[in-house]
Design goal:
alpha+beta; Beta-Lactamase; 5-stranded antiparallel β-sheet; 11 strands
């Protein structure tokens, strides 16, 4: 009898211990899932803070979609550009769409593998160019989709810009979607008549827009600046761009160049080298690749 009682007590103790392990494991899993969700929310907050300046430089409306059901998505953020007329007359933030209305967006949450591709759509009876980019969460799954909507005319103008500028803009878009752009929320808007310059990580000028070239021409630099080291230009550019690269954050400064008052904004971008786009957009090690500079006179 004593042996039977002892065996029963042992079985009960083992059962209770096993139940405790299951509860602890379940609690640990819930805590881990909650931690992942908190990290994803923090990532989306960083992305939303950077959308206004990215919309200005992309010359496009940026709409951030999140799933709101099996066949539904909602626009959680909408940044409209100051650098040209926006595609949408009113903010689309809060608008819910179905798979029937926006099948491309709903499909984008499951697309594999991802490739950068622009396709045509119609908004308010006008043709637009649309590109969809995924936002990957900490678990590697798509948690949001960014729609880059621009008028077809503005899209064609962007295509005529130099390859160096287009590559820098793509790296900046990817930097934003990885949540790596810091300080963008403190920048003033970029306007239609502001100049743009691209400087690489070695501080060499890779692109100067026509407006920026005219600004530097007024300072006594009539020749092309492309290929020159930024330190050879006797302006505040070297100090500001070096600080932005070193600190890996956006900076803005108002200063006087000769008799002109300029407002400069520096936006650093990072790269994951020449990986496929779905790997470049995923979280992981990246390196400083350069700075986009916006100049307002």
């Amino acid at each position: 009898m004593a042996r039977v009682l002892s065996a029963i007590l042992c079985i009960r103790a083992h059962t209770e211990a096993r139940r405790g392990e299951l509860v602890a494991g379940r609690d640990e899993g819930v805590c881990e899932q909650h931690g992942q969700e908190m990290k994803d929310e923090a990532l989306l907050e960083r992305i939303q803070a950077a959308l206004p300046v990215l919309a200005d430089l992309s010359r496009a409306d940026l709409l951030l979609f999140r799933r709101s059901g099996a066949d539904r998505a909602v626009v959680t953020a909408h940044a409209r550009p100051h650098s040209l007329s926006p595609v949408y007359a009113e903010s689309q933030a809060g608008r819910e769409v179905t798979a029937a209305e926006r099948p491309d967006v709903l499909r984008a949450f499951h697309a594999r593998p991802w490739r950068r591709r622009v396709h045509s759509e119609t908004v308010n009876r006008a043709p637009i160019a649309r590109e969809l980019l995924p936002v990957y969460g900490n678990n590697g799954l798509v948690i949001a989709v960014l729609a880059i909507d621009t008028s077809w005319l503005a899209h064609e103008r962007q295509l005529r810009r130099s390859r160096a500028f287009r590559a820098a803009l793509q790296r900046l878009q990817e930097t934003v979607l990885r949540g790596e752009l810091v300080g963008a929320e403190s920048l003033s808007p970029f306007g239609e008549h502001d100049g743009i310059m691209v400087v690489d990580a070695e501080l060499r000028i890779r692109y100067v827009s026509g407006i920026a070239a005219n600004l530097y021409r007024r300072l006594g630099y009539p020749q092309s600046l492309v290929g020159r080291h930024i330190s050879t230009i006797e302006t505040r550019d070297y100090a500001l761009i070096s600080a932005s690269l070193r600190e890996q954050r956006c900076l803005e400064e108002q200063g006087t160049e000769h008799e002109f008052t300029w407002i400069r904004k520096t936006i650093p971008f990072r790269s994951r080298d020449y990986r496929p786009v779905f790997r470049r957009l995923a979280r992981g090690a990246s390196r400083p690749a350069g700075v986009l500079i916006a100049i307002h006179d």
